[in-house]
Amino acid sequence: MDALVRLLQLLVLLLTLPLHLMALLGLWEPLCKSYFPYVMDVLTAKNNRKIESKKRELFSQIKGLAGASGKVALLELGSGTGANFQFYPAGCRITCLDPNPHFQTFLTKSMAENRHLEYERFVVAFGEDMKELADGSMDVVVSTLVLCSVQSPKRVLQEVQRVLRPGGLFFFWEHMAEPQGSWALLWQQVLEPTWKHIADGCCLTRETRKDLESAKFSELQMEQHPPLLKWLPVGPHIMGKAVK
Ligand SMILES: C[S@@+](CC[C@H](N)C(=O)[O-])C[C@H]1O[C@@H](n2cnc3c(N)ncnc32)[C@H](O)[C@@H]1O
């Protein structure tokens, strides 16, 4: 099976050689960072239409989590275009964090469309090192379709726990690898080296459920959903919450 994966990977690599050469020369990443926000803008609308009721149900739990300030301090990790703003209740004070500053235009548009929220600031940084954010400063952290793209899910989850106050909640909606031994996983393995370049670092075969289970949350609840967009090689999704 491994030899077959390698052979097919090589075939895909040859078919997409210019992309890989550009990546090798450091020319692809800046291009990807510029176009990816446009791709996400389109995909976000599609995703949200399909998952609207689930997101609404998940984020309805934010009500009543206000800290000492009377507001809910919420960190949108890997904020992208601001895909979740419409689902948050009034009274949330949002901090956005994303390493890609090209999302700013889309984020500003989402903010203008969701005036029931307060926006604290947009921090351009990686989730693995959120030194701009103080320990225990957040009531809620949200991560949707982000843990697939980070360099180290383990370090990001440690940082999430650091910035959450005791009892604070981490809400997530993430995709993960198809089941072991399936043809779908084989195709994910074949496409991953090329997909990572096209989709701004997204790993198709990440075992995000295991990463969440090994992180030291005091409580963890999640449910699994089938892949959302059938024409993409993205696997099943998990949605849920963890308590610090
Ligand atoms: C697929 S997009 C999802 C955006 C948004 N959360 C959503 O649900 O539409 C992945 C996002 O994660 C961001 N990202 C990539 N690496 C990251 C990292 N190390 N830390 C935080 N965010 C990261 C990307 O810039 C991008 O905005």
TrEMBL record:
Residue spans crossing the bilayer? 7-28
Q: Specify the superkingdom.
A: Eukaryota
User: Matching InterPro entries, A to Z?
Assistant: Methyltransf_11 (IPR013216), SAM-dependent_MTases_sf (IPR029063), Thiol_S-MT (IPR052356)
Q: Which Gene3D superfamilies match?
A: Vaccinia Virus protein VP39
Q: Does the keyword Signal apply?
A: no
Q: Which UniProt keywords apply?
A: Membrane, Transmembrane, Transmembrane helix
SUPFAM superfamilies with a match to the protein in the record: S-adenosyl-L-methionine-dependent methyltransferases (SSF53335)
All copies of the Methyltransferase type domain together span 75-172
| Listed GO MF terms | thiol S-methyltransferase activity
Q: Which PANTHER family match?
A: METHYLTRANSFERASE LIKE 7B (PTHR45036), THIOL S-METHYLTRANSFERASE TMT1B (PTHR45036:SF6)
What is the protein name for this chain? Thiol methyltransferase 1B
Source taxonomy: Eukaryota, Metazoa, Chordata, Craniata, Vertebrata
Gene name as annotated: TMT1B
